[in-house]
Amino acid sequence: MAATQKQTYLSVCKQLNEPPLRQLLETLEYGDARLDVSGIYLPRRHFRCFLHFIEERPDIEELILDGVDVGVKEAKLLKEHLLCSCVTKLSLQRIKLDSASANIIRQLCIENSNLVSVMLPETYVPSYLVDEIMLIVDLNRLNVESLRSTNTAGVLQGTSTIARWKLCRGKKDHSFSSALQLSSSATKRMVDDFVTSYKSVFIDFSFQPGTFNHPVAGIEAIRWSTYCGLSMFHKGKRDGSKGLFSPSSHYNNQNLCATLNILRFYDILSKSLLLERYPQSGLYVFRFFVDGLPVEICVDDLVPCVYVSGRCTVVGLSSCCSPFYAAILEKAVAKAIGGYRYLQELSLCDYIELLTGCTCFEVNLLRQSPVSTTFDTLRSLNEDGHKLVAYAIPRTLIEERILEDSGMCCRIPFTILKTDICQKHDTHYVFLVQLAAPLTGRLLKYAFEYEIYKTEEVNENCVFWLTFENFAAAFERVFLLLWPFDDAVLNHKATVEFQAASEFLSGSSQFAKNSSFLIQNEGGSSTPVMVSLVASSAPHTQIGAQCLFYKGVGAGNEASQRHYNVSKNNAVFESEEFEGNEGAVFFNLLPAECLQMTLSSHVPSSFRIRISAVGNVSGIQLPDTMVSLTFSGKWNTLLKAKRFSDDILRLRTIDGERTINLVLALSQATGDSPPFPHGVLGWNGTSTNVVDTTKPGFSTQQEKSTLCVHSFVLTLAAGESIFLLPYCCGGRCPDGYDLTVFCEERFAQSRVKTTSVL
């Protein structure tokens, strides 16, 4: 991440052994492109340090030095550093300059063609020098405007005004000590035969107390039948149970508890978790899911416990109606992930995926997006029939107390039933969310009551309305659940899978060569699409995978459909960076919309890509249709306050007159500073005689970006070549650059030393 202006200033002060100015630090907090130090006392001894800082910051474009004490020495420093800076506007009002100092400022304007404005009102300086300085600055401005007239702006992707929702999630790569194994039907029959043939109690030798990997010290274990004989508990019936699960007071298994309460609300517990049970033999078989595929876990009924004051207590998850089922289910989960110690590492989404095979997305209600946008997202998902669950997880005891006082129970699921907009006199009044939660007997302090919006009791659940503001403040986040067995989204009409790679970083000039896909909605209505990525390997480094989406071309052959003028800056929208080696993005594809998706990652990686959708959606992997040439070089040739490439790049074709399409991608190395302004000047002709930096035949817009892309359509006469000259502004910009040229034609390439031409 680039350093802030304040951080850069402190670093420069430390480097030059100068104490920082408190007032200047306060001004730099805002990070503006316009830096005004006219109200700050700037000692002469601090002038070099200050100007060195200006040189380091390409984001400072306007410098106001009104009233600052400037002598000959300071004027020389000003010229030295502004020649290497990105400042284009300078104000020197209310300053007394002698002839020597004014001549230095005049020379600065001559040598720095980027300086297009110098303010000198109320400045004591010979009038003839003022006229000369203003004339030079006017010529600089006219020259810049002339160059802009030949510029081709960076490629932008047109975005639709229709609101779009998208949800993203990543999955961390947990290095568990035990891997889930799919039980074959033959193994299952052997277990069945063992249980029915012998009266002895089943013992799971693969998961004994010594391998529980339990976070509680001094743990012991007890058979559930023995525990029932020692206590007042009995084995409650699991089916039809309305009791909530409660977490352990000995260690953190709250996310598992939350997941089971959510599943209990949707009556999923009795559908798929427990496949077989043999109570007399103590054998229980559960079904979980890994990567959407079912696996079977066999466990015995030996559960962890502690003895306190002669009393035996099961330390894990419990339920008031079925404590045995809670303990044995937690044991199966612990066995699946390598031990009880790892229970606290899995998120709520991880547990939902493990227990049901569904996909879970988190919606952050407190993001900086407008309230109406977040509400419309929930409303759209709700109307499409998706299941939405809100879950209050307080971070502190104070937050927990506030929630409890408002009647909102922590760590139990609140299901979102409906969303609505309450209106009075045909005008907008308030956004509303209808929730359902198990009855707790508490009075809901913030429940919304008005006309048809009432609190009710339905099937032992409390159904009530909240304003969206109160809802967001209480929960902060909600979860979208996509079930694999009864939700239409997972019963996809269209699912395609690809093997693909991301070889180049988003800041690389070769970024467009990464794998790209075309996703097209061939229907007339919006439809949800899910794109999931799984890394082929699990390296220890953070992959940082990301999907970037661009406006696509749906008609024509595949060769005409792929865009190469893509970068991270011009995406229509993008996923978040996935935390681990797996991730998914879920978004709505607008009617008849066509998108190009391009992969990005921090390190070269291979992925399995799955594109799934409900509606009439097609997905293809786009072939590589353009050839590319990549030039790496340095820009150390200084001219008119610009750093030009040491080499002019020449591209030649042996064919006759023709029209060609070019995409230029220019990237600069990244550092602590923000990106410096850079661009490319171009000419077409038969020799280097056409190269003139004041009269380019074509040029890119000057951009402050790590990577900028530009498209050109050029007509070349027979025997003509293309000459390209990259440049950057600012003496502190990184030395190296990469320029990649994408074209449908193949060119012969060569280099000419810039100093031999300019």
TrEMBL record:
Superkingdom in the source lineage: Eukaryota
Pfam families per the UniProt record, alphabetical: Peptidase_C2
A Gene Ontology BP annotation from the UniProt entry: proteolysis
PROSITE patterns, alphabetized: CALPAIN_CAT (PS50203)
UniProt keyword annotations, A-Z: Hydrolase
Entry EC no(s): 3.4.22.33
Domain Calpain catalytic: 281-480
GO MF terms, alphabetically ordered: calcium-dependent cysteine-type endopeptidase activity
The protein's enzyme class: hydrolase
Protein name: Calpain-like cysteine peptidase, putative
Species whose genome carries this gene: Leishmania panamensis
